[in-house]
Structures
1.
Amino acid sequence: MEQTLAILKPDSYAAGNTGRILAHLEAEGFTIRGLRIVHLTQEQAGAFYAVHAERPFYGSLVDFMTSGPCVPVALERENGVKHLRQIMGATNPAEAAEGTIRKQFATNIENNAIHGSDSAENAQIELAFFFSSSDLIAAQ
Ligand code: CMP
């Protein structure tokens, strides 16, 4: 079993797609170990995406991620990191495969519905950004 972090982004929350995306994740075999609704500050969003600080889209990304509430979700599944990335689809929904979350729910490369950790190592760092270990429900 492998943990990963998804964030249902402000576009998903604003469009009322949170429940549909969570249902999709559960149908794909993910167990939800933690769930929050947070409205990130500029400082928090900037820190979360610090790896992109030099990219031209960084300011816009931080503005978007602070534009409304988002839903961080701690997920667990066999091969969880890779499987989440697969079912999310390409970063740009125009390039995302049929049936992927971004194909169904994203608008464009910035308003792209969902974030998923890109490695098991980053998943642990990103999970700790939103959840303390006592917030996470252990496997039953
Ligand atoms: P995410 O998986 O959350 O990781 C970084 C985010 O930056 C990415 O999703 C996109 O929402 C955003 N992003 C990546 N590339 C671009 C781009 N070229 N223009 C705007 N936003 C981008």
Note: The helical segments are 10-14, 18-27, 42-48, 58-65, 80-88, 101-105, 120-130.
2.
Amino acid sequence: NVSHELKTPIGALIALAETLEVDDDAEVMKRLAGRVLHEAERLGRIVDDLLDLSVLEVQAAPDRSAARIADVISEAVDRLAPAARTAGAELTIAEVSEGSIVCDRRQIVSALCNLLENGLKYLDDGEEAVRAVAIGASRDGTDVVFHVTDTGIGIPESDRERIFERFYRVDRARSRQTGGTGLGLAIVRHVAHVHGGSTQVRSEEGAGSTFLLVIPSGLSEGPPMQDASP
Ligand code: ADP
């Protein structure tokens, strides 16, 4: 899979460069250069995501410290605020439970960013459509349950099991068009796994999706941790 996914943009880059080499129409050259940039950026994102995944795969246990749940959520929302503006979507924080979680803050923020980014990417483009993504966190016993809900296109039931697999896409063309790598949810699942947690998805086609990231709060385990929140 990896070699196929890497070969596709590389093949496109070679073909584009070969055309550029023989074409001297300024307009055509400009258009082709734009496509070279697009393919190169896509390749860059795939390599970045693959590196993130391989770090997660070899990691025995995440570096943990205590962070306020609200701070973790705000950091993810701040990062995606520009993308929400570009998508013309409302990005809101729903109820967030008080308290802290012992986790690798960078990894949890990255997982939440992937979920928010997907929520924004797979919104319904129809003129009448409500375009909204919300994030929050609640507690279930000793677990912290992060949830990201969107009013997007939803996911067919037959695909729901498979979307966490690397490079699995429901609609390849849409994923490609929105700059997807097909690795976002694989990263989310790995982050959950190394924290001893899990992921869940609920969805209704045409109405939207909710992704849950369930992470043990870790507060009752082991010696007290130092608070790493700013
Ligand atoms: P991609 O880079 O393609 O978005 P992901 O691993 O993040 O890859 O997601 C895998 C696939 O799951 C996507 O291609 C898309 O078909 C589907 N998907 C993920 N999140 C959502 C969502 N919030 N709404 C609808 N479909 C989604």
Note: The chain has seven helices and seven strands.
